Amino acid sequence: MKKRFLNLFMIMTIITLLFGVSLFAQEAEANTEGLTEMTTTADEEIMFDESPQVGGVEAFARSLVGSGFVDLFLDGGFAMWPILVLMIWGIAVIIYKIIALSYARININALFDKIIPLLKEKRYQDAAAICAKTKGPVAAIIHAGLLKADQGVDAVEKAMESAGTIEMAFLEKGFVPMSTVINLAPMLGFFGTLVGMIQAFDAIAKAGEVDPTIVASGINVALITSAAGLAVAIPVQFFNNLLLGNVDGLVLDMQRGSEKVVETLIEN
Questions:
Q1: Distance, CA of 14 to CA of 214 (rounded, Å)
Q2: Do residues 80 and 195 touch, judged by C-beta distance below 8 A?
Q3: 32 CB-near residues (< 8 Å, 6+ apart)
């Protein structure tokens, strides 16, 4: 599990670095083109090309995310950088939660078929050993309860309640970062919108007249940042709700499992 999470984190980091290198390479290319226009003699003109390493990385990054997205990112201004960080963070947390919840889900009826006959025969240690080998929070809380089976039903209930609290903390892990992304991404987009409008009105004030070409740059920044903030927040909100539904299902299985064990112990 830890190795898989580490590999996913490394992949996301590499993608982010490649994307950043692509952006800086494009800015360097734009500055280079501006310098070449200042030469006065064609024979003495110096062409500043990107190094092969940067060009190769940029080509890979553009093929990965698309040239259009890179251009939009640059046009959006500095507010796009924190939005990019939130996007990478949100994707990483979503991948982590999907993997973690997939490992937490088990067939609870199959587990019951194995341990209930053992509980009826009062073979508590054998049932606890089966739960210890089974993944997921349902098996974990039943295992904690069966370890106290010799001390009575009350001790079993308290042990499962304590284990359930711990398992709930693990199940809820990751939702706070997703909520942070959902809240901050649109706010940063709105902040970029205000910056773009300030730039547009500043251009009007300097020009002394209203011309669509003068305000186009500022309005472009405003629209791009707003769209970027929503484009990050909406998918994260969708997966947040979807994963919360999976957690609710696991909680129901935990309650069902604990009640089944207690009922079996009381009957015997």
A1: 38
A2: no
A3: 48, 49, 50
Q: Would you call 88 exposed, middle or buried from its count of C-beta atoms within 10 A (0-12, 13-18, 19+)? A: middle
**pLDDT tens readout for residues 233-267:** 999 999 999 999 999 999 999 999 999 998 888 88
Tokens of 50: 């990107």
Q: Where are the alpha helices (DSSP H) in 66-152?
A: 67-75, 80-104, 108-120, 124-132, 137-146
Please report where in the chains the tokens 């209203």 appear, as a residue. 210
Q: Quick check: 190 and 75 in contact, CB under 8 A?
A: no
CA distances in angstroms from 203 to 74, 78, 113, 144, 226, listed in the order given: 19, 18, 74, 68, 20
The residue among 15, 12, 9 whose CA lies nearest residue 60 is 15
Residue 141 CA to residue 254 CA, distance in Å, equals 7
Residue 228's closest CA among 92, 21, 70?
70
106 contacts 133 by C-beta, under 8 angstroms: no
Query: Cα–Cα distance between 119 and 262 in angstroms, integer?
Result: 10
Please report, to the nearest 10 degrees, the dihedral formed by the alpha carbons of residues 141, 170, 101, 262 taken in order. 20
Q: Where are the domains of the chain?
A: 1-74, 76-268
Write out pLDDT tens, residues 132-170. Answer: 999 899 999 999 999 988 888 888 899 999 999 999 988
Amino acid at 71: D
- Record the pTM: 0.70
H-type alpha helices, the chain: 2-36, 52-65, 67-75, 80-104, 108-120, 124-132, 137-146, 153-172, 175-207, 212-267
CB distance 236 to 182 below 8 Å: yes
